[in-house]
Amino acid sequence: GWAGMRFNTAYPIHPRIGLAKTVYKLYNLTTELIWWLRLPGVWCLQAIRLIAFTLLMLPGFVPPFLHFLTSSNVRKNIPYGKRFRQQLDIYLPVEFEEARQETSQFPVVVFISGGAWIIGYKVWGFIMGQLLQQNGVICVTSDYRNFPQGSVQDMIADVDDSIDWVSKNIHKYGGDRNRISVVGQSAGAHLTAMLLLYKMTNTPIGSMREKAEEADPNLLVGSPFGNIRHWVGISGPYDIPALIPELRHKGLHKRLLSALFDDLENQSPIQFLAKNKEKIDKKALLPKMHLFHGTKDASVDCKHSTKFASALKEAGLDVVVTMYKGKSHTDPILEDAVSGPDPLTQSLLDIVHGKKLNNYQGTLFITNPKPCSASHESATLSDSTFIH
Predict the structure, then answer these.
(1) Which of 128, 135, 240, 349 keeps 20 to 30 A from 16, CA to CA?
(2) Sheet arrangement for strand 175-185
(3) What are the contacts of 67-74 at 24+ separation with CB within 8 A?
(4) pLDDT for res 225
């Protein structure tokens, strides 16, 4: 039945949509995306590079991907909403026992993957999910609408819905609803940062491009922070106007970017924070904020994290910044995680567990990350902000 298919196989079809409608929707979205991207284009070279990277990493990807497909401790394709792509996967810890699932108290990570707002997919988090489940943490990887199905605003609304579902339901899987951390990587870091700022300033999230037949009034009000303890942004773009020239250079033309960021001033974390910092309730119990970035990130310069940290400091907020010397955009979550060492996962586990772990499972070790560079804005950070 649907329950078994949904929880224990890789069957990806949303039960409310079905196979035929899913195939039709995928066909329409693919043709629409090609129209937006234009064919041929500079983006084709980026696609070839991505395929080549995947092939090179294949020997490291295959074993954990097979585990993802076959493990009963990975509950796959659970709907968190009615729309296409509103599904999530749950990676249960190796210590998980079915009979005691509602009395367990495992810490929880909600992981939102990147993908340039176009090719994001929850399965991209399968390595992160397995590393966390090996170390006593429930990891939830959530899907969200990609462009052209939605704009950035729609994606933020989906992320909010998925976190709200986790807050209300994760105890059924042995999760501690009072120990939830939200982690975003690349575009996922941008989306979760915007969601964080919207909630801090009590800004309606809203879904600007909702179709009338799919409209849901609950999207207009974001759920409160409640039980979210930490937010972690990994390799995230937080100054979107500064990033746009680079995106155009890689083949995403102006017309596409205008549709993707349909309210740019309110969809770029640094600019939004500068305009709305007076609205932040400093007395509220806010999640602790952490920024991770590699100093050799060629996709999103690590200046994005140091500039965002400075903006948070100017707004009276604290943030812990960790720079990984010589690391690229994907090193901390893919190459290092597959081959070891993996200092980022160690740091993330320390944050999530609230203590330093001495029995970390994996072939990983921790190093001392260095600042982005002397020319970056780390010198402007407050005393309560740390750069290791």
Answers:
(1) 128
(2) 74-79, 87-91, 138-142, 106-112, 175-185, 228-234, 288-294, 319-324
(3) 67/130, 68/10, 68/123, 68/126, 68/129, 68/130, 69/10, 72/8, 73/133, 74/129, 74/133
(4) 63
Q: What tokens appear for 139 in the block?
A: 């990891």
Measured torsion, CA atoms of residues 134, 140, 141, 146, in degrees rounded to the nearest 10: -170
Q: Catalytic residue numbers?
A: 186, 297
CA of 135: how far to CAs of 102, 249, 343, 350, 361, in Å? 19, 40, 14, 11, 6
Amino acid at 312: L
| Residue 210 clears pLDDT 80, i.e. is over it | no
Which residue pairs, CB below 8 angstroms and at least 24 apart, start in 335-343?
335/57, 335/60, 336/364, 337/127, 337/128, 337/131, 338/57, 338/60, 338/61, 338/64, 338/127, 339/60, 340/364, 340/365, 341/365, 341/366, 341/367, 342/131, 343/367, 343/369
Instruction: Report the distance separating Cα 65 and Cα 333, nearest Å.
Output: 15
| Side chain identity, residue 184 | G
C-alpha triplet 132, 94, 351: angle, nearest 5°: 30
State pLDDT tens for residues 265-285: 899 999 999 999 898 877 777
> 89 with 110: CB under 8 angstroms?
no
Q: Are strands 74-79 and 87-91 parallel, antiparallel or unpaired?
A: antiparallel
CB 72 within 8 Å of CB 153: no
From CA 378, how far away is CA 296, in angstroms rounded? 16
Give the C-alpha separation, 146 to 123, whole Å.
14
pLDDT band at residue 206 under the 50/70/90 scheme: low
pTM, two decimals, is: 0.82
Most confident segment among 30-34, 125-129, 144-148: 144-148
Q: What token pair was written down for 322?
A: 């960790």
pLDDT digits (tens, 9 = 90+) for 70-94: 888 899 989 998 888 899 999 999 7
What the block records as the tokens of 203 is: 């800004």
Tokens representing residue 191 in the block: 């989306």
Residues 46-56, buried b or exposed e (16+ Cβ, 10 A)? eeeeeeeeeee
Q: Are strands 106-112 and 138-142 parallel, antiparallel or unpaired?
A: parallel
